[in-house]
Amino acid sequence: MTTIGSLQRLSATSLSKLILAEQASTAAAAAGAENSRSTLAIIDVRDDDYIGGHIKGSQNVPSHKLDAMLPTLVRQLQDKETVVFHCALSQQRGPSAALRYLRERDRLMPKEVETKLAATVEEAVGADGEGKKKDEEEKGEDEKKKPVNQKVFVLDRGFVGWQEAFGLDERLTEGYSKELWRDGYWM
């Protein structure tokens, strides 16, 4: 059984590589080079502190609404290979949300679908650090929507650590307000 202590952490740098690989794959698909689907989901569980920026492409599910949203979230994310949870510091809300998500997914999803923690970051990011690429052309539309084995992570150091490394990078961060973060975590 998964516990808070056994949740795998993902560094901001590793997550940035996953995001950039996903963006490159989406751009290639838009250019007609290949079919693509998003394989990454980032869930931000900050509440009132969800100001001053967020990771590009992330979904805000405030922690106080998470329990009510879990069944919907499990269905929405069933085809994602990698799911990353975070809050401001990823010390309490982020890890707790990841654990609750894992348990809800195990309860709702068929037994043949395994939700697991990645054994290593390389398993999710890829040995080359460029992110995993799948041959999507072989997959039919129905298969793309089926539940997949998932790797669930918690973003190490949360959004505070993320904004220190990538706050000003508009490819990776949206709505960033440098003034709010000038003196570090303001809450």
Could you characterize what this model shows?
By secondary structure, the chain is of the alpha/beta class. It is globular. The chain starts with 7 loop residues before the first strand and ends in a 6-residue tail after the last helix. Helix 2 (66-76) packs across helix 3. The chain contains 7 helices and 8 strands, in the order E-H-E-E-E-H-E-H-E-H-H-E-H-E-H.
Can you describe this structure in just a few lines?
This protein is an alpha/beta fold and about 190 residues long. The chain is built from 7 helices and 8 strands; from the N terminus they run E-H-E-E-E-H-E-H-E-H-H-E-H-E-H.
Low-pLDDT stretches: 133-143
Give Rg in angstroms: 16 Å
Mean pLDDT: 85
Shape: globular
By secondary-structure content and strand pairing, the structural class works out as: alpha/beta
CA(first)-CA(last) distance: 33 Å
| Beta strands, count | 8
Question: Mind summarizing the main beta sheet?
Answer: 6 strands, parallel
Helicity level:
25-40%
Reading the helices and strands in chain order gives EHEEEHEHEHHEHEH
Please indicate the percent range of residues in DSSP E strands (runs of 2 or more): 5-15%
How many helices? The count is 7
